[in-house]
Amino acid sequence: MQLKAKDLAIVSVFSAVSIIVGYGRGLALSSLPGIIEFMTVLIFVNGLMFGWVVGALNGAIALIIYMLVPYPFAHPAAFLFTISPILLIIMALLGALYGIVGGILGKRYNPININAKFVAEMAFFGFTLTLIYDVVGSIGFYLAYPIFYASVWEAIYLTFIPLYMPYPPIIHTFTNTLVFALLVPPLTKAISNFPGVK
């Protein structure tokens, strides 16, 4: 599939905004890492509004850059000041997943007609995608840095219990459910008013 100049511009802008939002969250909520983030909802909305290819590229590029720059509080591997290629690939694929699913769903929805069913479905997809992100991300961390875990099962188990923080990492799944329910509807409605948007 050939990308148009407009698509490349959308990927560039959304990737930059996603990264800035990701780092901004880390700075603003440094005492609560992993509780709330807005990067994945932007990637999802990008796919929803502009198609799965654009969304997937946005997700992969944003997560690669986000993981490569070891900004404190940005992500769990930041304290290592290096990133494993294995974890980088897994996180890029997980980022792309949000854009792909958003793109597939985008054909089903009309951003003008947003109702309670749409909000509930966005919450469901936010929960499902983030659960996959959190569990597969933990597995990716194990594959990249096996020295920190006794087994892959321990990596998965630690996703659900508060070992190093006062809350379990899985809390991200529940907060993202709310983020998707609250932000996807107004974002899609706002973007739909831009010239040239479907």
Could you characterize the architecture of this molecule?
- Helices cover 67% and strands 0% of the residues.
- It starts with a helix and ends in a 6-residue tail after the last helix.
- The chain contains 7 helices and no strands.
- The chain has one domain (5-192): Orthogonal Bundle (Arp2/3 complex 21 kDa subunit ARPC3).
- The longest helix is centred in the middle third of the chain and has 29 residues, at 116-144.
- The chain is mostly helical and 198 residues long.
Strand composition percent: under 5%
Uncertain stretches of 5 or more adjacent residues:
none
State the helicity in percent bands.
55-70%
Provide the structure class.
mainly alpha
Q: What's the total helix number?
A: 7
Distance between the termini: 19 Å
Number of strands: 0
The best one-word shape is globular
The mean pLDDT is 83
CATH fold category name:
Arp2/3 complex 21 kDa subunit ARPC3
SSE series: HHHHHHH
Radius of gyration: 17 Å
User: Biggest sheet, in brief?
Assistant: none
User: What is the level-2 CATH architecture name?
Assistant: Orthogonal Bundle
The CATH class is identified as: Mainly Alpha
How many domain modules?
Answer: 1
Describe the structure using short key phrases.
198 residues; mainly alpha; Arp2/3 complex 21 kDa subunit ARPC3; 7 helices
Short description:
By secondary structure, the chain is mostly helical.
Q: What's the arrangement of secondary structure elements?
A:
Blueprint lengths: L4 H24 L10 H12 L1 H17 L16 H22 L9 H29 L7 H6 L13 H22 L6
Helix pairs in contact: 1-2, 1-3, 2-3, 2-4, 2-7, 3-4, 4-5, 5-7
